[in-house]
Amino acid sequence: MSKEGTWFIEFNTPFSYHVRGIRRVLYSGVTKYQRIAIVEFEDLGKALVLDGKIQSSLYDEFVYHESLVHPAMITHPHPRKVLILGGGEGATAREVLKHRGVEEVIMVDIDDEVIRLVKEYLPEMSQGAFDNPKLKLILQDGRKFLEESRDRYDVIVLDLTDPLEGGPSYLLYTIEFYSIVKDS
Asked: Which pLDDT value is given to residue 5?
């Protein structure tokens, strides 16, 4: 049992869940778009939780973010202009910025409150990416941004929340959305 006796239950299906002990809650609240918690788990360290789903933890976030970014980046011969949709904790941008040839990274995230809180409570995840002059942060819906943009990108990385009905990423898991991405 965790020291405070506090538990986090993440439901995977209607019939299964995973339980983790929480050492402490650093922040818990609701933004315009979603519920957010930044907690320190007994086994995973600090973590970002959105709408009851663990997004990433300090213990193992590198596995997700490296696997998400580097295959696309090394497949492109010269990725100079990269678009990230989502990625609020800044770790996706951190990984993209490791590629020396990258000249511009546009990160579009809908929830400015998540970014503000991550900068305050989880700066270890971005490791300074938010301060990199190559990064341009745009606070907007990713789908709307792509629909209105005429820009083309060498690589587009989607680091989105789960497609929970009514959640901020729900409409980013559609054939129509991927058609928009393909044309960008």
From this structure: 67
